Amino acid sequence: MQLLVPASPALRVCQRLSGNMAASGAGDPLDAESGKAPLAQRIDPSREKLTPQQLQFMRQVQLAQWRKTLPKRRTRNILTGLGIGAVVLAIYGYTFYSVSQERFLDELEDEAKAARARALARASGP
């Protein structure tokens, strides 16, 4: 029987331990010789024939990992959203501020009125 054991907190892979559960050392997550956990191997459920129990175990581990990382991800998403919103509001506010500071159109209108007044004065003057 083969078992799936999560490889790391990132849960990118699961390890298949070969052997019978009754065999000595089977089911023990540590290697008896070195005292270290065995390295994980990638498993593609679509290519390999896995039992329903193995698939259910993979789903349970993935769900546990998702639940573990959800608060951190939610916090990051909220901070990212607030940051993007702040940038948008800053651009919007700066646009209004800069448009209200633009007086060159007013100056052009004043110059145009003065030019019209001079033209009328010349036309009616001499």
From TrEMBL:
Gene Ontology terms: biological process: mitochondrial respiratory chain complex IV assembly
Pfam families: Coa3_cc
Recorded topology in the membrane: Single-pass membrane protein
Location, primary (coarse class): mitochondrion
Compartments (UniProt record): Mitochondrion membrane
Domain (Cytochrome c oxidase assembly factor 3 mitochondrial coiled-coil): residue spans on this chain: 64-111
Entry GO terms, CC: mitochondrial inner membrane
Residue stretches spanning the membrane: 77-97
Database matches in InterPro entries: Coa3, Coa3_CC
Subunit structure: Component of 250-400 kDa complexes called cytochrome oxidase assembly intermediates or COA complexes.
Function statement: Required for assembly of cytochrome c oxidase (complex IV). Core component of the MITRAC (mitochondrial translation regulation assembly intermediate of cytochrome c oxidase complex) complex, that regulates cytochrome c oxidase assembly. MITRAC complexes regulate both translation of mitochondrial encoded components and assembly of nuclear-encoded components imported in mitochondrion. Required for efficient translation of MT-CO1 and mitochondrial respiratory chain complex IV assembly.
Family annotation (PANTHER family): CYTOCHROME C OXIDASE ASSEMBLY FACTOR 3 HOMOLOG, MITOCHONDRIAL, CYTOCHROME C OXIDASE ASSEMBLY FACTOR 3, MITOCHONDRIAL
Assigned protein family: Belongs to the COA3 family.
Protein name (record): Cytochrome c oxidase assembly factor 3
Encoding gene per record: LOC103125965
